[in-house]
Design goal:
Elements lengths: L1 H7 L6 H21 L3 H33 L3 H10 L5 H13 L3 H4 L4 H24 L1
Length: 138
């Protein structure tokens, strides 16, 4: 869930970004421990960060990012593919698109330019639908 949010906002592009995301909380804890005089615990946390967390993140980061990206699918693309494949009639396709576009995602609601994005998605879907209809008529 958190990785999805980071990816959708463009904050998590590759393994390097994931390493930073994982390292920052550790560095905050290490700094707080050292600041309050727990130098032994700070040293132990540093060792865990350097010899456990970072290598595991570097080794498994690509699989975590790719599996997360694959699990997030675009419903509009799925509807378009089903329509083109003939699984949906034109009316079913239009109703499904209208239903999808009228229900904002939680991530989209928090964005200030949600209306602009909705307009762009609607125009893209209408042009795709028109193109498919033109292809069928020929």
């Amino acid at each position: 869930m958190a990785l999805t949010w980071f990816r959708s906002n463009g904050l998590l592009e590759d393994v390097g970004d994931l390493v930073v995301l994982v390292s920052v909380p550790f560095l905050v804890v290490i700094s707080a421990l050292a600041l309050f005089g727990f130098t032994t615990l700070a040293a132990l946390a540093s060792i865990i960060l350097v010899f456990v967390v970072l290598p595991v993140t570097l080794l498994s980061g690509d699989s975590v990012l790719s599996s997360n990206a694959e699990s997030v699918s675009d419903p509009v693309s799925e509807l378009r593919e089903r329509y083109v494949a003939g699984e949906l009639s034109e009316d079913e396709f239009e109703r499904a698109i209208d239903r999808h576009l009228s229900t904002p995602d939680r991530d989209d609601v928090s964005k200030p330019d949600w209306n602009r994005q909705l307009d762009e998605r609607t125009k893209a879907m209408e042009s795709d639908r028109d193109r498919v209809l033109d292809d069928e008529r020929r």
